[in-house]
């Protein structure tokens, strides 16, 4: 085991420290550990270890390596090849676990408090402390420090969730003071103070954070800090609001007929859904029960209003609950067959288009087009926006349609701005964020991300922040950030999906994003046995098997790979398919991938999702061209 969470050290199998000799020996070991298992050529080692390499630098390096090998494997028989510090090709690599890898595994996902405490206790100082001034260590030190700070904040968040806010305050106060540009640190500190009945102190912390950010960085606080401040200020009125709600609900219960309550229930479910998290889950759980109750009434117009009234904007082209989506489509088709007026018909058709997303069924695009025609003829802005959302959901039937989706997003923004439809306006900005990303217009996408965040904070639509956070991780990856920094950004983005109530987005997205990043960078694909690939398993499996050096199994998996679904990851999955086919010599499948991707030659592969990318489609097409 190697220790890098502090000065570089090594321990033997019994946990006893190993004498690593002098500082130059430690520097050699540190440089190899920074590479995280990859081979570092001798020439690179020499350049990194000496500002001006002396004539005997290579010989000296080999002497250091030999001494390290004796220290690391003292019982290795003569002439037996080393197994820890190995020679591969033009250089050396380390084969061994580090406390950094152990830390990263321990804090991934949602670990319990005791696990976080244990993992944070493994830090003995700044990572790679004895080579802190070396440029080659900088990116890895930054990555590990970011992981540590994230774990500190996750620990504080866990304490808050356990009702131990008072225990979190001292450490959070020190953490925010030491890292004043981390908005999450200020947010957690203010929340902890508020939960310990220190409302004034909480607001003072938020004002302090705002002043620091504006005075030193010239930026306003992000949506998380703004939302918390708003929530604290509103809480003073919460008791009165609760009383009004209870009295109004009782009066409604007495006065309104049961059938009419179904439509009101849909209004409540729509409000729950845009609130995100548990609200979205609850809305999804209750939605079909409301539809079934409407169908039992025998009134097709009521059923149509209940089905079509749930016009919650959707940005992701994979359903959270495909089975429920199919039941909703079937109910909408039954209501259509019973005969309803045009406005209800358009809403039912738009619902079918939304709930058929990501499938290959021809009914989805057909319903989207008909809903749009009726909505435009009727001229109802909210109905047109709903129909445009359906049209967007059915705009992934081939590669290269980012300009089409960009036009849909533009119309949604214009329509919503004119008629006061803020939730649809956020949708329009997110649609354009995706489209401009696909077209490598990151300046344009940045503007739409900022606009979506601002509207979401103003109108309390927290789910928008999930997509803008993922976009910023994509942007970092697409614009050449070092691999560790890009991977860390994706992992941070994945954390926003915890509890967001969107399994259709969450399942398999992080490992897919990391796989695409590595394929784009021509790096070995990760083969994490614990990765949950979700619906993307068929496209990932050939790469995982190739990484594990199982080419025959990879080829068999490739033969079973299905056509990508018609969703926002259409180009990304075709790129993975084509490049795997190329690696395994399947020319026929590579040719199919090339033909499928050709219309998107001017786009970034996968970036139309707003979540991940494999770089320019043109580069993949060039690789796939015989």
Short description:
With 626 residues, the chain is mainly α. It has four domains: 2-120, Orthogonal Bundle (Arc Repressor Mutant, subunit A); 163-238, Tetratricopeptide repeat domain (Serine Threonine Protein Phosphatase 5, Tetratricopeptide repeat), CATH 1.25.40; 257-478, Serine Threonine Protein Phosphatase 5, Tetratricopeptide repeat (Alpha Horseshoe); 505-624, no CATH class.
Secondary-structure topology with pairs:
Blueprint: E1 2-3, E2 9-10, H1 23-34, E3 40-41, H2 42-49, H3 57-72, E4 85-88, E5 91-94, H4 99-107, H5 113-120, H6 135-161, H7 165-178, H8 183-195, H9 199-217, H10 223-235, H11 238-255, H12 258-275, H13 278-296, H14 300-308, H15 322-338, H16 342-355, H17 363-378, H18 381-393, H19 402-419, H20 422-438, H21 442-459, H22 464-478, H23 483-495, H24 503-506, H25 509-520, H26 537-547, H27 551-559, H28 570-583, H29 587-597, H30 617-624
Antiparallel strand pairs: 1-2, 3-5, 4-5
Which key features would you list for this structure?
mainly alpha; two-stranded antiparallel sheet; Serine Threonine Protein Phosphatase 5, Tetratricopeptide repeat; 626 residues; 66% helix; 4 domains; 2% strand; Arc Repressor Mutant, subunit A; 3-stranded antiparallel beta sheet
SS content category: mainly alpha
- What is the top-level CATH class of the largest domain? Mainly Alpha
The global form is globular
For the residues shown, what is the average pLDDT? 91
Question: Which fold name is given in CATH as the topology of the largest domain?
Answer: Serine Threonine Protein Phosphatase 5, Tetratricopeptide repeat
Structural domain count = 4
Strand fraction equals under 5%
CATH architecture of the largest domain: Alpha Horseshoe
Count of beta strands: 5
Q: What is the CATH H-level superfamily of the largest domain?
A: Tetratricopeptide repeat domain
Q: Percent range for helical residues?
A: 55-70%
Q: How is the main sheet built?
A: 3 strands, antiparallel
Looking across the biggest beta sheet, what order are the strands in?
A: 3-5-4
Number of helices: 30
Distance between the termini: 46 Å
Radius of gyration of CA atoms, rounded to a whole number: 28 Å
Low-confidence stretches: none
């Amino acid at each position: 085991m190697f220790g890098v969470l502090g000065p570089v050290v090594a321990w033997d199998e019994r946990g006893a420290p190993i004498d690593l000799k002098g500082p130059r020996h430690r520097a050699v070991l540190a440089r190899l550990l920074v590479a995280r298992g990859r081979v570092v050529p001798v020439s690179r080692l020499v350049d990194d270890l000496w500002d001006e390499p002396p004539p005997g630098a290579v010989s000296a390096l080999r002497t250091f390596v030999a001494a390290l090998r004796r220290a690391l494997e003292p019982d290795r028989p003569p002439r037996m090849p080393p197994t820890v510090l190995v020679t591969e090709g033009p250089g050396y690599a380390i084969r061994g676990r580090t406390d950094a890898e152990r830390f990263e595994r321990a804090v991934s996902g949602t670990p319990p408090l005791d696990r976080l405490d244990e993992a944070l206790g493994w830090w003995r100082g700044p990572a790679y402390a004895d080579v802190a001034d070396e440029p080659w260590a900088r990116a890895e030190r930054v990555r590990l420090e970011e992981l540590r700070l994230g774990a500190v904040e996750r620990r504080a968040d866990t304490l808050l969730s356990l009702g131990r806010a008072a225990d979190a305050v001292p450490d959070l106060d020190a953490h925010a003071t030491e890292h004043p540009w981390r908005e999450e640190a200020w947010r957690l500190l203010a929340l902890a103070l508020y939960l310990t009945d220190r409302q004034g102190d909480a607001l003072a912390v938020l004002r302090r954070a705002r002043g620091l950010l504006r005075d030193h960085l010239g930026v306003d606080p992000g949506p998380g800090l703004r939302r918390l401040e708003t929530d604290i200020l509103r809480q003073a009125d919460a008791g009165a609001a609760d009383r009004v709600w209870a009295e109004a609900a009782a009066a409604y219960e007495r006065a309104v007929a049961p059938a009419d309550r179904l439509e009101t229930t849909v209004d409540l479910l729509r409000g729950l859904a845009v609130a995100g998290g548990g609200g979205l889950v609850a809305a999804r759980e209750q939605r079909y029960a409301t539809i079934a109750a409407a169908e039992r009434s025998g009134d097709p117009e009521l059923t149509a209003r209940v089905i079509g009234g749930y016009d919650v904007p959707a940005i992701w082209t994979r359903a959270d609950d495909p089975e429920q989506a199919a039941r909703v489509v079937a109910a909408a088709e039954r209501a259509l067959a019973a005969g309803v007026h045009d406005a209800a018909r358009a809403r039912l058709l738009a619902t079918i288009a939304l709930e058929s997303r990501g499938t290959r069924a021809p009914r989805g695009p057909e319903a989207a087009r008909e809903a749009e025609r009726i909505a435009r003829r009727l001229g109802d802005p909210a109905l047109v926006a709903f129909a445009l959302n359906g049209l967007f959901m059915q705009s992934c039937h081939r590669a290269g349609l980012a300009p089409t989706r960009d036009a849909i997003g533009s119309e949604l923004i214009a329509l919503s701005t004119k008629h006061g439809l803020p939730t649809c306006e956020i949708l329009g900005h997110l649609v354009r964020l995706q489209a401009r990303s696909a077209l490598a217009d990151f300046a344009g996408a940045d503007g739409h991300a900022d606009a979506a965040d601002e509207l979401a904070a103003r109108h309390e639509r927290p789910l928008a922040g999930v997509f803008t956070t993922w976009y910023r991780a994509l942007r970092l990856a697409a614009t050449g950030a070092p691999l560790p920094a890009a991977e860390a950004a994706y992992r941070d983005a994945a954390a926003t999906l915890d509890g967001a109530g969107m399994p259709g987005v969450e399942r398999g997205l992080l490992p897919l994003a990391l796989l695409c990043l590595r394929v784009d960078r021509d790096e070995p694909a990760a083969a994490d046995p614990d990765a949950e690939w979700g619906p993307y398993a068929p496209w990932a499996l050939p790469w995982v098997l190739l990484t594990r050096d199982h080419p025959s199994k990879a080829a068999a998996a490739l033969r079973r790979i299905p056509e990508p679904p018609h969703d926002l990851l259409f180009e990304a999955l075709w790129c993975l398919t084509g490049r795997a086919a190329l690696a395994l010599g399947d020319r026929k499948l590579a040719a199919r991938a090339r033909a499928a991707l050709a219309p998107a030659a001017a786009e970034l592969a996968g970036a139309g999702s707003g979540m991940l990318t494999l770089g320019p489609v043109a580069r993949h097409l060039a690789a796939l061209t015989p």
